[in-house]
Amino acid sequence: MLGVKSVSKVALITGASRGIGRGIAIELAKSGISVAINYLSSYENARELLCEIKSFNPNSGIYKADISNELEVSEMVHKIESDLGEIDILVNNAGISQIGLFQDMTSSERDRMIGVNLIGAMNLTKAVLAKMIHNKSGDIINISSMWGEIGASCEVVYSASKAGLIGFTKALAKELGPSGIRVNCISPGVIDTDMNSNLSADDIKALSDDIPLKRIGTPDDIAKAVKFLISDSAKYITGQVLSVSGGMVI
User: Fold this and answer.
1) Domain for residue 248, yes or no?
2) Is residue 34, in this structure, part of any structural domain at all?
3) How many domains are there within the chain?
4) Which of 39, 63, 158, 236 is catalytic?
5) Torsion of CA 31, 238, 129, 10, to 10 degrees
6) Do residues 160 and 101 make contact, with C-beta atoms less than 8 angstroms apart?
7) Mean pLDDT by groups of 10 residues along the chain of 250 residues
8) pTM for this model (two decimals)
9) Orientation of helix 19-30 relative to helix 219-229, angle to 10°
10) DSSP letters of 100-136?
11) Is 39 a catalytic residue?
């Protein structure tokens, strides 16, 4: 797409067109990393983000794919490698949620949530692993949730899928450690994103009162954590779950 491959590191961020993914994309681009922005339906948001991060690293691009579809993931990864170079950093951020009683959730809704939140991360990881193993280096960051740690009523399948990401992280870190690849997980608390846009001002205040740091988080809080985990400052850290919840989960 761009015709010139980057000499900088390349990061693929899933669900990067908005929210936490957008914050991560901006933070990494500011660090000189070439960013591959994955999106599914938010094309305009992805284009706007690309325009913004190109001022930091012009060798970036946007890539549409349903991450629950293994073929689409494979095709996207090949396209990114052709455009930007081999993927050094994978951030499995994309996720969907649904609030409601477990007994009322349909099988298709359940399968879709697990397909995106858990299987999607597995699809992406498998697609980038061969090159990372060959290069004896790479960073994989999985974005879970505090509900994956402690569970949430009326978000049972979401909690299960995010708990699965934590188990995936720990097991994969053990498997890939000898290959020089680090796998870590970030567990966000309540973050100011579209996923929580249904919360009223009163809801936000009540939640903030329950958080030791007395505020909900921002995408930038998560982005800074990602930046740390992929840095040399964290080169002896793997298989860990970093809670970024303002102390809500301790």
Assistant:
1) no
2) yes
3) 1
4) 158
5) 0
6) no
7) 61 97 98 98 97 95 98 98 98 97 98 98 98 98 98 98 98 98 98 80 89 97 98 98 97
8) 0.95
9) 50
10) S-GGG--HHHHHHHHIIIIIHHHHHHHHHHHHHHHHT
11) no
